[in-house]
Amino acid sequence: MSIVTGARRMAVAGPTSQRRKPMSSHVRPRLTMALTAAMAALVIGGLTAAPASASNSYTGAAYIGGQGDFMDDWTDEGILSTSSNTNSNATCLWQKVLWSYGYLSWGEVDGRFGSATKTATVNFQTKWMGLKYADGAAGKDTFTAASGHAPFAHGYGLATDNGSGVTTYVGSKHSFNLWRNGDGHYDFYDSSGVVRSAGYNYLTCT
Predict the structure, then answer these.
(1) Are 124 and 188 part of one and the same domain?
(2) Are residues 90 and 42 in the same domain?
(3) Is pLDDT larger for residue 38 or for residue 116?
């Protein structure tokens, strides 16, 4: 596109009172070659570009995860809602967060983002973030608030009891164990006591 624009500028350069001269025959082949090369580059670029991530994560990762200081872990997570990553282990972890504040019962932690989870998410957002954030979808801002990170710090969230890494999530009503595995993905126990990784793209938790 930029090559074509440049060619047009070359053709009309000069005082506007001058008559536009016909493009010489030796210029046309150069422009044709340039346009052909540009189109080929676009096609090749389209063929070699990485496919879009199916995780809807802001980082492109397929799991809720992190590295370094755990307090920064949840500031760039993907979207969980009734239309995005609806049935997933990531949703299961989010439901455990909601349970820890008393917005869901233990029996509602099933990894399926339905109307009850949406309502619970709205209640969390309204209480801990403000009404303008209460859209019922757990995205980047909501996960930031859940982690206890500024600007939504509220005294609850990711915590440690060993001084080296995250080991616990502390809500206003309950707490539960979670941790980063060797790949930096968050693991947690589901309701059956089985260790699950918080993946966006699949559901195995119960």
Answers:
(1) yes
(2) no
(3) 116
Q: Which residues of 33-62 are buried (b: 16+ CB within 10 A; e: fewer)?
A: eeeeeeeeeeeeeeeeeeeeeebbbeeebb
Cα(15)–Cα(166) distance, integer angstroms:
69
- Structural domain including 81 reads 70-197
Tens digit of each residue's pLDDT (9 = 90 or more) over 174-198? 999 999 999 999 999 998 999 999 9
Task: Classify residue 204: in a domain, yes or no.
Answer: no
pLDDT tens readout for residues 138-149: 999 999 999 998
**What are the structure tokens assigned to 12, written together?**
């009309």
148 sits in which H/E element: none
pTM of the entire predicted model: 0.73
If one counts the domains in the chain, the total is: 2
DSSP characters for 77-97?
---BSSSSS-BSHHHHHHHHH
